C-alpha cells in the first residue's frame, strides 16, 4: 500500500478521535508488502484504531478474521496466490456484515466487476484519500457505537420489505429476494445500507409501479425517527 | 422490458401467428367445413395450454397476496371462456346446430366481470400511485369508443334486437376491458410485468376488432366459424397465452433455501 505523504501531519488533529465511549475500533491489516502493512497499521494506531493483527495474503485475512472478528479489515487487492478478492469472498461467506475495505491501485474494470460481486464495504484507490478514510472510520465507529440497535433497524427494514412484498404475493417476495441476492449478493436486511439495490430490482420488475411499493415501505418506516432509516428512505424515494 | 416469447424466439413467435393465418385462409379456400375444423382444432390447441398455464399460475401463487387472488380470477375467467368455446364446438360440430346465440354466451359474458376483478387485484398494491387523472383518461377513452360502437351498430342493425344487443355486448365489454390495461401499461412502463399487459392490450384489441367483425358479418348473415375474421380470435388467445407464460417466467420458482431472507444474523 502507498500512503500519501500528507497523511501524517493531518492525522494528529483527530488522534484518538475514534475511541468514542471507550469503543475502540479494532482492525486487521493485510498487505503482501510487510513495510506497507506496518506503516498503514501505525497510521491506524495513530488515529485511534486498534490494529489487532497484520497479515500478508488473502488466506491470512480469512484466518485472522475468524480468530479476532475485528470491526474492520483492510486488505490490499493484488497479492500473490490468495488475493484480496479471495479474502473478501471467504469472509463475506462467513459474515455478510463484515466491514472489509479493499485498497488498490488497480483500475481494471473486469477485476472491479468481480470485486463488487462480493460487496466490499469500500474500495479505496492508492494513494489513500485521507478524507475518505476519516469518513469511513467515523461511520464505522458510529455503527459500532450503536451496533445492537443497528441490527434491530436492519431487521425492521427487512420485516417491512418482506411484509410489503408478501401483500403483493409470495412469488414477488421470492423473486425480489432472489434477484437481490443474485445481482448484489445482498439480503433484505442489507437494504438499510443499500436501498438503491432494492430500488433497482423493483424498477426492473415493476417499472414505474415500483414507486407504489416504495411508497408503501416509506409509509411504514417514516414514523421511525432515526438517521439510518431517514437515509434509507431518502435514497429509495429519490 | 422482458418480453417472454418474443425476444428469445422471435422467429418462432411470428411463425405461429403466420401459421394460424395461413391455415385459416387455406382452409377457407377449400370450403366452410374445412374452415370450421381448422378453427376448432387451432382454438383448442391454444386455449388448452392457456388454461393449463393459468392453473399453474394459480398453483404458484397459492391464493396468497393480491397477485394470488388476481390469478384466481384470471384462471376462472379463462376457464369460463374455455367452457364457452367447448359448448360452441359441441353445438356446431357435434349437434350441427347454430351455436349463436347459445349457453356459450352466458359463459363468455360471465368471464368479463372475473377479468375485471383480476385487474383490480393485480393493481391493488399499486393503487397509491394511480392518479384520478389516469383513471379518468382511461375510462374516458374506452367509454368514448364503446358509445361510438353502440350508436353506430344500433343504426345499422337489421337483425333482432336481442341478437344485436348480445352481439354488441362483446365488443363493448372488450373495449371497457381496455381501461385497466391502459392504466397498467402506464403504471408498469419499463417494468418486466408490462409485457403481460402489452399482450392483454393487443389481445383485447384483437377481440374488439374480431367481435365487431363477428357482429357485422352476423348482421349480413355471412359469418361462419373459421371465417378469416376468426384469425384475430386465435391471435388474441395466443397473446393472452404469451402474457401468462411470461409472467410465470418472471416470477419463476427457484432458490428454495430462501437465503435472501436469512435472519439468523439478528438472533
Biggest sheet overview of chain A: 5 strands, parallel
Computed CA radius of gyration of chain A, to the nearest angstrom: 19 Å
Binned strand content of chain A: 5-15%
**Helix share, percent of chain A:** 55-70%
| DSSP strand count of chain B | 0
Structural class of chain A: alpha/beta
User: How confident overall, as mean pLDDT of chain B?
Assistant: 86
Could you walk me through the main structural features you see in this protein, from its secondary elements to its overall organization?
The complex is a heterodimer of chains A (238) and B (267). Chain A is an alpha/beta fold and 238 residues long. Chain A has 2 domains: 4-143, 3-Layer(aba) Sandwich (Rossmann fold), CATH 3.40.50.2300; 148-237, Non-ribosomal Peptide Synthetase Peptidyl Carrier Protein, Chain A, CATH 1.10.1200.200. Chain A has helices at 7-11, 34-46, 58-68, 84-94, 109-116, 130-145, 147-168, 170-184, 195-206, 210-221, 227-237; strands spanning 25-30, 49-55, 72-76, 100-104, 122-125. Chain A is elongated. Chain B is mainly α. Chain B has helices at residues 5-8, 10-30, 32-61, 65-94, 103-123, 132-156, 161-187, 194-219, 230-250. In chain B, helix 3 (32-61) runs antiparallel to helix 4, helix 3 (32-61) runs parallel beside helix 9 (230-250) and helix 5 runs parallel beside helix 7 (161-187). Chain B is globular. Mean pLDDT of chain B is 86; it is low at 1-5, 256-260 and 262-267.
